[in-house]
Amino acid sequence: MLPSVSGANQQYLSDLQRMNSQLTDVTRELSSGLRVNTVSDDPFAVVPIMQDQTQITQLNQFQTNLNNLKPELETADSALQQAMQNVESAISIASQSTSPMMDAAGRSQLVNQVQGILTNLVNLSATSAGGRYVFSGDLDHQPLYALDSTQPTGVKQLATANSTRVITDLNGSPIWVGKTASEIFDDRNPDTTPANDNVFAAVNSLLTALQAGDTTAAQASITNLQAADDHLNQELGYYGIGESRINDNLTQVSSSLVSVQTDMSTLRDADMATAAVQLNQLTVQQQAALSARAKVTGLNLFDFLA
Predict the structure, then answer these.
(1) Measuring CA to CA, which residue among 222, 227, 119, 238 is closest to residue 177?
(2) I need a labelling partner for 202 at 20 to 30 A (CA). Which of 66, 73, 88, 152 fits?
(3) Which pLDDT score is estimated for 111?
(4) How far is the C-alpha of 102 from the C-alpha of 199, rounded, in Å?
């Protein structure tokens, strides 16, 4: 016949159950590395932990967006530097063309060089990065210009595009809006005629002058070529500012991520050293309790649980 469970024995079993429950909790902390695994572990910590998790997700996405944009701006920056070098080469050619030592063969060579410069500029207007044309605005799946010697600017506009993609900072303030090839290489007056700093028009005017053997017109083209060079320099500065803003925001988001992750770790993560000590103490206490009870009663745990 099994013994009845007295009040003292009932208290003993309750204490033992509580100890086992603590052992289970500490073992779970050590295996998962988390202090809060379920709502019951710390109800007051659940809401701030969830808020931190949401913020971390948003910060990671923002960081990804900036990191995706960064090489695009770097590629555009490089393209604009090359465009400036090409325009400056055109200025040098315009100056050479007026030399009294220039013969027909020399002028023909200069024509070929300027044709190459115009081709380069059209290609640079179609610069791509990450699978999109960086100067095509909202039509980033296609280039906006192609060579066309029948046009006054030497190029044909394939499509008209705006740039409406806006990159904002963590507070929602705009930090970057890209520009289109039309704004950079094909600047226009309000009446749509080419502006003095129109890059394509300036180079094509030199090309037309050289093809006609008109040294006066070639010399005159230098004014617009210099204006085009200044315009490209301004656009290069704009992209440089964009790169700086992107880098600043990447630094800021990295700092914010560390702060939020630290806060969530404080709320959620287990103190592994403390948990290990607690596990050892509970294990010793459990073994001592079982051993002491067995000596007093001559019964073991299975007798009580039968």
Answers:
(1) 238
(2) 73
(3) 96
(4) 26
**How many whole angstroms separate alpha carbon 286 and alpha carbon 16?**
7
- Of the candidates 244, 152, 242, 138, the one whose C-alpha atom is nearest the C-alpha of residue 181 is 138
270 dihedral zone (left: phi>0; alpha: psi -120 to 50; beta) = beta
The residues that bridge with 162 in the sheet, in sequence order, are none
Beta-carbon neighbour count of residue 10 at 10 Å?
11
Which residue, 207, 215, 249, is CA-closest to 90? 207
Q: Which two tokens stand for residue 66?
A: 């900036």
Residue 187 has pLDDT above 60, yes or no: yes
156 pairs with which residues across the strands? 146
Model confidence at 1, pLDDT cuts 50, 70, 90, reads: very low
The domain segmentation of the chain, as residue ranges, is 78-247
**Predicted TM-score (pTM) of this structure:** 0.76
Superfamily of domain 78-247: f41 fragment of flagellin, N-terminal domain (1.20.1330.10)
**How far apart (Å, rounded) are the C-alpha atoms in residues 104 and 108?**
6
How far apart, in whole angstroms, are the C-alpha atoms of residue 39 and residue 32? 15
Closest CA to 126 of 56, 170, 85, 185: 185
